[in-house]
Amino acid sequence: MKAIGDQRAAAGPATPDHQARMRYAWRVCSVTSLGLILIGVAGSTLNVALPSVVRHFHASAMESGWILLSFLLVNTASLVFFGRVADLVGRREVYLTGLALFTAASLLAGLAPDVWFLVGMRVVQAVGAAMVLANGTVILTDAFPPERLSQGMGVYIGTLSVAQLAGPTLGGLIAETAGWQWIFWVNVPAGLAALTWGAMTLRRMPRGPRRPVDALGNALLFAALSALLLALSEAGSAGLSSPAVIGGAAVFVVLVPVTVLVERRAASPVLDLRLLGGRLLTCANLASFCNALARSALILIAALYFQAVRGLDAFDAGLSVLPLPVGMALASPAAGLLGRRVSSYALSVGGALLSAAGLGVLMLAIDPAAPYWIIGLGLLVAGCGSGAFMTGNTTEVMRAVPQSSLGVVNGLRMMIMNVGIVISVGLSLSVLTSSVDEHLRAQVSAGTLSALSPVAVGQLTQGFGRTYAVLLAVALAGLALAALARAPKEPR
C-alpha cells in the first residue's frame, strides 16, 4: 500500500501544465501507435499470404524465404544507424521520412514484375520501418511523465498486438479475394493517414549529441547477419554440407570477432556493448532477444501449419492463428495498467513464463487430428505472455537509462530484439523445411503440401514438432534471463 501511495504522490497534482502534457502525450501515443500498426499489419498480412505470393512468382524455397528475410535483415542492421541520424537531423524529421518511404515502397511492391524486384522493395520498406521503429519509442518516452510511462507503453505495444490481430485475417481475405498485390497496396492509404497526423501532431525535439556515424561498424554488422541468414536459409533447403551453408557460417564466425574489435575502437560504435553495463540492462536485453526469437515466427509457422498440414486456405488459416495476436492485444494494455501497481520486473518474468507455457502446448498439439481448441489455447497463452513481457521489459529498460542516453540505448535495444526476429524466421524455416524431401520443400512455403503426399505431411508434422521444441528451449532461456534482470536493492 505504501508503494501505491508513493506512486500516486510521485504523479503530482493534476495542474493545468500536467494536464496539457498528458493531452499531448496521448496524441503522440496515437502517432507512434499508427506507425507501429502500419508496420505490424504489413508483416502479419504477408506472413499469412506468403503462399499466394510464392505461387504467383513460382518462387523457390530460397526466394520465398528472402521475401521475408530481406526486410528483417535490413531493418535490423539499420536501427542504430537511424537512431544516430536522428540525433543529427531530428527525431520528428526522421520518423516522418520513414513513414513516407515505407508508404512509397508499399505502392511499388504491389507493381513488382518479378520476385527479386519485390525483394528490393522489401529492402526499401525495411529502411523506412527502421526510421520509424528507431525513434517511435524515444518520442513516446520523451512525451510521457515517468510515472505514466507504463500506461503509454502498454497502449503503444498493444497496438502492435492489434496490428497482428487484424493482419492474419486481413492478409488471408485479401489473398483469397483481391490478389496478393493488395497485401502491399493496403498500406498506402494507412501510411498517408499516419504521415499526415504525425506532421500535424509531433513537435520538434531537442537534438541529441552529435556523434559520428559508424559506417564500418554498420557494414560489418550487415555482412555478418547476411552471412548468418544465408547459412540458416540454405541449411533447410540444401543441407548442412552445402557450400553456401559452410561458407556463410565461416564468414559469420570470422566477422564476429572482427566486428567486436572494430567496435571497441570506434569513437561512436553502432554496437556499443558498454551501454549494457550492469546486470539489469544486460539480462533484460538478452531476455528480449530470446523472447523475440521464440515469438516472431509463430504466426508464420502456425499459418503454414494450417495450410500445408491441415489444407486450409489463406483466409481460414488467418482466422485460425488469431488467438496469438488476441492474447497480445489483451495482455499489453492490461500489463500497462498493472504497471502502476506491479513492478515491470514482475510483468517481464510472468510474461516470459506464459510464453514458454504456450509454446509447450503447441509442441504437444501438432497431430493433424488434435482438436483446434488445444492449438488455439497454446497460441492464446503464448500471445498473452509476449504482450505482458514486451510491456514490462521495454518499460524496465527505458526507466533504467538516463534521458540523454534514451535514443542510443533504444536503438541498441531494438537492434538486439530484431536480431532475434531475424534469426527466428530463418531458423524456424530451416528446421521446418529440413524435415521433408528436397524436391518437396518449395511446397511448404506454397502451402500445397497437404494435397500431394500423406507421407510428406507426416514428415512435415514432425518438423513442426521440432520447430516448436527449439522455440520452447529459447523461451525457457529467456525466462531465466528475465528472472536475472532484477534491479539491485538500494541501501536503506
Automatic annotation (TrEMBL):
One Pfam assignment: MFS_1
PROSITE patterns: MFS (PS50850)
Main location group: membrane
Keyword Transmembrane recorded: yes
Topology of the protein relative to the lipid bilayer: Multi-pass membrane protein
Keywords in alphabetical order: Membrane, Transmembrane, Transmembrane helix, Transport
Protein name listed in UniProt: MFS transporter
Classification lineage: Bacteria, Bacillati, Actinomycetota, Actinomycetes, Streptosporangiales
